Protein backbone atom coordinates (compact mmCIF):
# COMPACT_ATOMS: atom_id res chain seq x y z
CA UNK A 1 0.00 0.00 0.00
CA UNK A 2 1.55 3.30 -1.03
CA UNK A 3 1.28 6.45 1.06
CA UNK A 4 -0.47 8.14 -1.87
CA UNK A 5 -3.24 5.52 -1.81
CA UNK A 6 -3.91 6.28 1.86
CA UNK A 7 -5.36 9.63 0.81
CA UNK A 8 -7.69 8.23 -1.85
CA UNK A 9 -11.41 8.67 -1.27
CA UNK A 10 -13.73 5.83 -2.25
CA UNK A 11 -17.51 6.33 -2.27
CA UNK A 12 -19.52 3.13 -1.75
CA UNK A 13 -23.04 3.29 -3.19
CA UNK A 14 -24.83 0.26 -1.72
CA UNK A 15 -28.24 -0.09 -0.05
CA UNK A 16 -27.39 -3.31 1.81
CA UNK A 17 -25.74 -2.31 5.12
CA UNK A 18 -24.01 -5.68 5.54
CA UNK A 19 -22.39 -5.53 2.10
CA UNK A 20 -21.43 -1.89 2.59
CA UNK A 21 -19.87 -2.72 5.96
CA UNK A 22 -17.72 -5.47 4.43
CA UNK A 23 -16.49 -3.13 1.70
CA UNK A 24 -15.80 -0.31 4.16
CA UNK A 25 -13.84 -2.66 6.41
CA UNK A 26 -11.61 -4.12 3.73
CA UNK A 27 -10.90 -0.71 2.18
CA UNK A 28 -10.14 0.65 5.64
CA UNK A 29 -7.69 -2.24 6.16
CA UNK A 30 -5.80 -0.88 3.15
CA UNK A 31 -5.98 2.69 4.52
CA UNK A 32 -8.46 4.07 1.99
CA UNK A 33 -10.89 6.75 3.10
CA UNK A 34 -14.51 5.78 2.50
CA UNK A 35 -17.95 7.37 2.39
CA UNK A 36 -21.07 5.20 2.32
CA UNK A 37 -24.16 6.28 0.37
CA UNK A 38 -27.35 4.23 0.77
CA UNK A 39 -29.02 5.53 -2.39
CA UNK A 40 -28.43 7.27 -5.70
CA UNK A 41 -29.95 10.46 -4.33
CA UNK A 42 -27.54 10.41 -1.40
CA UNK A 43 -24.59 9.99 -3.78
CA UNK A 44 -25.62 12.80 -6.12
CA UNK A 45 -26.05 15.16 -3.17
CA UNK A 46 -22.63 14.29 -1.77
CA UNK A 47 -20.93 14.77 -5.14
CA UNK A 48 -21.68 18.48 -4.81
CA UNK A 49 -19.12 18.73 -2.01
CA UNK A 50 -16.92 15.62 -2.37
CA UNK A 51 -14.32 14.78 -5.01
CA UNK A 52 -13.93 11.00 -4.92
CA UNK A 53 -11.09 9.16 -6.60
CA UNK A 54 -13.39 6.22 -7.29
CA UNK A 55 -17.02 5.18 -6.82
CA UNK A 56 -18.20 1.61 -6.23
CA UNK A 57 -21.81 1.55 -7.47
CA UNK A 58 -24.32 -1.24 -6.89
CA UNK A 59 -26.58 -1.70 -9.91
CA UNK A 60 -29.58 -2.65 -7.77
CA UNK A 61 -30.29 0.60 -5.92
CA UNK A 62 -33.78 1.36 -4.55
CA UNK A 63 -34.30 4.80 -6.09
CA UNK A 64 -32.51 4.68 -9.46
CA UNK A 65 -31.07 2.09 -11.80
CA UNK A 66 -27.34 1.71 -11.22
CA UNK A 67 -26.51 2.21 -14.89
CA UNK A 68 -28.27 5.57 -14.86
CA UNK A 69 -26.47 6.49 -11.66
CA UNK A 70 -23.18 5.65 -13.32
CA UNK A 71 -23.99 7.92 -16.27
CA UNK A 72 -24.87 10.76 -13.89
CA UNK A 73 -21.58 10.30 -12.02
CA UNK A 74 -19.62 10.14 -15.28
CA UNK A 75 -21.18 13.46 -16.39
CA UNK A 76 -20.18 15.16 -13.12
CA UNK A 77 -16.88 13.56 -12.21
CA UNK A 78 -13.78 12.09 -13.78
CA UNK A 79 -13.42 9.54 -10.98
CA UNK A 80 -12.94 5.83 -11.52
CA UNK A 81 -16.08 3.66 -11.45
CA UNK A 82 -16.49 0.04 -10.38
CA UNK A 83 -19.88 -1.60 -10.89
CA UNK A 84 -20.99 -3.99 -8.16
CA UNK A 85 -23.78 -6.29 -9.24
CA UNK A 86 -25.63 -9.47 -8.40
CA UNK A 87 -27.18 -9.53 -11.87
CA UNK A 88 -26.18 -12.66 -13.73
CA UNK A 89 -26.84 -11.24 -17.19
CA UNK A 90 -23.68 -10.55 -19.18
CA UNK A 91 -25.59 -7.78 -20.99
CA UNK A 92 -25.75 -5.71 -17.78
CA UNK A 93 -22.01 -5.89 -17.28
CA UNK A 94 -21.32 -5.13 -20.94
CA UNK A 95 -23.70 -2.18 -20.84
CA UNK A 96 -21.89 -0.82 -17.79
CA UNK A 97 -18.56 -0.97 -19.59
CA UNK A 98 -20.12 0.56 -22.69
CA UNK A 99 -21.31 3.50 -20.58
CA UNK A 100 -17.85 4.14 -19.20
CA UNK A 101 -17.30 1.98 -16.12
CA UNK A 102 -13.71 0.97 -15.50
CA UNK A 103 -14.50 -2.49 -14.14
CA UNK A 104 -17.21 -4.64 -12.58
CA UNK A 105 -17.37 -7.08 -9.67
CA UNK A 106 -20.00 -9.79 -9.31
CA UNK A 107 -21.75 -10.59 -6.02
CA UNK A 108 -20.91 -12.59 -4.03
CA UNK A 109 -17.36 -11.29 -4.23
CA UNK A 110 -14.04 -11.84 -2.54
CA UNK A 111 -13.30 -8.56 -0.68
CA UNK A 112 -9.60 -8.63 -1.46
CA UNK A 113 -10.32 -9.09 -5.16
CA UNK A 114 -12.43 -5.93 -5.00
CA UNK A 115 -9.52 -4.08 -3.39
CA UNK A 116 -7.14 -5.40 -6.08
CA UNK A 117 -9.41 -4.07 -8.82
CA UNK A 118 -9.78 -0.70 -7.06
CA UNK A 119 -6.02 -0.37 -6.69
CA UNK A 120 -5.45 -1.38 -10.33
CA UNK A 121 -7.78 1.37 -11.56
CA UNK A 122 -6.23 3.99 -9.28
CA UNK A 123 -2.73 2.93 -10.33
CA UNK A 124 -3.57 3.30 -14.02
CA UNK A 125 -5.09 6.72 -13.39
CA UNK A 126 -2.04 7.82 -11.39
CA UNK A 127 0.31 6.63 -14.14
CA UNK A 128 -1.74 8.51 -16.72
CA UNK A 129 -1.69 11.76 -14.75
CA UNK A 130 2.09 11.50 -14.24
CA UNK A 131 2.91 10.64 -17.82
CA UNK A 132 5.57 13.37 -17.99
CA UNK A 133 6.63 15.29 -21.07
CA UNK A 134 4.89 13.04 -23.60
CA UNK A 135 1.54 14.75 -23.28
CA UNK A 136 0.25 14.91 -26.85
CA UNK A 137 0.30 12.08 -29.39
CA UNK A 138 -0.40 12.71 -33.08
CA UNK A 139 -1.22 10.03 -35.66
CA UNK A 140 -2.86 10.24 -39.11
CA UNK A 141 -4.30 13.70 -38.43
CA UNK A 142 -5.64 12.73 -34.97
CA UNK A 143 -4.38 14.42 -31.81
CA UNK A 144 -4.70 12.80 -28.37
CA UNK A 145 -3.97 14.79 -25.21
CA UNK A 146 -2.90 12.32 -22.52
CA UNK A 147 -3.27 14.97 -19.82
CA UNK A 148 -7.00 15.58 -20.19
CA UNK A 149 -8.12 12.56 -22.27
CA UNK A 150 -9.26 14.79 -25.17
CA UNK A 151 -9.15 13.22 -28.61
CA UNK A 152 -9.28 15.58 -31.61
CA UNK A 153 -10.31 14.23 -35.00
CA UNK A 154 -8.64 15.41 -38.23
CA UNK A 155 -11.69 17.67 -38.86
CA UNK A 156 -11.18 19.35 -35.46
CA UNK A 157 -14.08 17.62 -33.71
CA UNK A 158 -13.30 16.82 -30.07
CA UNK A 159 -14.15 13.54 -28.37
CA UNK A 160 -13.78 13.38 -24.57
CA UNK A 161 -12.84 9.81 -23.71
CA UNK A 162 -13.86 7.93 -20.58
CA UNK A 163 -11.09 6.86 -18.22
CA UNK A 164 -11.05 3.29 -19.50
CA UNK A 165 -11.07 4.41 -23.17
CA UNK A 166 -8.23 6.86 -22.53
CA UNK A 167 -6.20 4.28 -20.60
CA UNK A 168 -6.50 1.92 -23.55
CA UNK A 169 -5.48 4.54 -26.13
CA UNK A 170 -2.52 5.56 -23.96
CA UNK A 171 -1.19 2.02 -24.07
CA UNK A 172 -1.67 1.93 -27.84
CA UNK A 173 0.04 5.24 -28.64
CA UNK A 174 2.97 4.33 -26.42
CA UNK A 175 3.30 0.94 -28.14
CA UNK A 176 2.45 1.45 -31.83
CA UNK A 177 2.93 -1.33 -34.36
CA UNK A 178 3.36 -3.95 -31.65
CA UNK A 179 1.04 -6.86 -30.92
CA UNK A 180 -0.29 -6.38 -27.40
CA UNK A 181 -1.91 -9.19 -25.44
CA UNK A 182 -5.23 -8.59 -23.70
CA UNK A 183 -3.49 -8.80 -20.31
CA UNK A 184 -1.08 -6.02 -21.32
CA UNK A 185 -3.95 -3.79 -22.40
CA UNK A 186 -5.85 -4.37 -19.16
CA UNK A 187 -2.76 -3.95 -16.97
CA UNK A 188 -3.23 -7.29 -15.23
CA UNK A 189 -1.60 -10.71 -15.34
CA UNK A 190 -4.55 -12.79 -14.17
CA UNK A 191 -7.21 -12.00 -16.77
CA UNK A 192 -9.71 -14.86 -17.05
CA UNK A 193 -10.12 -16.35 -20.55
CA UNK A 194 -13.85 -15.59 -20.34
CA UNK A 195 -13.33 -11.93 -19.42
CA UNK A 196 -14.56 -9.94 -22.42
CA UNK A 197 -14.26 -6.46 -20.89
CA UNK A 198 -11.21 -5.56 -22.99
CA UNK A 199 -13.11 -6.47 -26.16
CA UNK A 200 -15.95 -4.16 -25.13
CA UNK A 201 -13.50 -1.31 -24.56
CA UNK A 202 -11.81 -1.94 -27.90
CA UNK A 203 -15.21 -1.81 -29.62
CA UNK A 204 -16.14 1.43 -27.85
CA UNK A 205 -12.83 3.09 -28.75
CA UNK A 206 -13.11 1.96 -32.36
CA UNK A 207 -16.50 3.66 -32.70
CA UNK A 208 -14.90 6.99 -31.80
CA UNK A 209 -11.64 6.55 -33.66
CA UNK A 210 -12.30 4.50 -36.77
CA UNK A 211 -14.00 5.85 -39.93
CA UNK A 212 -15.47 2.35 -40.35
CA UNK A 213 -15.48 0.40 -37.04
CA UNK A 214 -16.38 -2.79 -38.92
CA UNK A 215 -13.17 -2.49 -40.97
CA UNK A 216 -10.75 -0.82 -38.55
CA UNK A 217 -7.74 1.05 -39.90
CA UNK A 218 -5.96 1.64 -36.58
CA UNK A 219 -6.86 -1.03 -34.02
CA UNK A 220 -6.32 -4.39 -35.68
CA UNK A 221 -7.36 -7.71 -34.16
CA UNK A 222 -4.59 -10.31 -34.36
CA UNK A 223 -6.52 -13.51 -33.79
CA UNK A 224 -5.06 -15.71 -31.08
CA UNK A 225 -2.49 -13.06 -30.14
CA UNK A 226 -4.11 -9.75 -29.19
CA UNK A 227 -4.42 -6.31 -30.75
CA UNK A 228 -2.18 -4.12 -32.89
CA UNK A 229 -2.27 -0.31 -33.10
CA UNK A 230 -1.25 0.33 -36.70
CA UNK A 231 -0.08 3.94 -36.87
CA UNK A 232 2.94 6.21 -36.92
CA UNK A 233 2.80 8.17 -33.67
CA UNK A 234 4.55 11.51 -33.27
CA UNK A 235 5.13 13.36 -29.99
CA UNK A 236 5.40 17.09 -30.78
CA UNK A 237 6.95 19.51 -28.33
CA UNK A 238 4.66 21.64 -26.18
CA UNK A 239 4.95 24.64 -28.53
CA UNK A 240 4.24 22.52 -31.61
CA UNK A 241 1.28 20.83 -29.95
CA UNK A 242 -0.24 24.14 -29.01
CA UNK A 243 0.20 25.60 -32.47
Automatic annotation (TrEMBL):
The keyword Transmembrane is assigned to this record: no
DNA-binding region boundaries = 134-231
Return the InterPro entries for the record.
CheY-like_superfamily, OmpR/PhoB-type_DNA-bd, Sig_transdc_resp-reg_C-effctor, Sig_transdc_resp-reg_receiver, WalR-like, WH-like_DNA-bd_sf
The record's section on SMART domains has: REC, Trans_reg_C
Report domain Response regulatory positions. Answer: 9-122
Question: Which keywords does this Swiss-Prot/TrEMBL entry list?
Answer: DNA-binding, Phosphoprotein, Transcription, Transcription regulation, Two-component regulatory system
One GO CC annotation: protein-DNA complex
Q: Which CDD domains match?
A: trans_reg_C
Which residue numbers delimit the OmpR/PhoB-type domain? 134-231
* The keyword Transmembrane helix is annotated on this UniProt entry: no
Q: What are the protein's GO molecular function terms?
A: phosphorelay response regulator activity; transcription cis-regulatory region binding
Protein name (database record): Two-component system response regulator
* Native species: Dechloromonas denitrificans
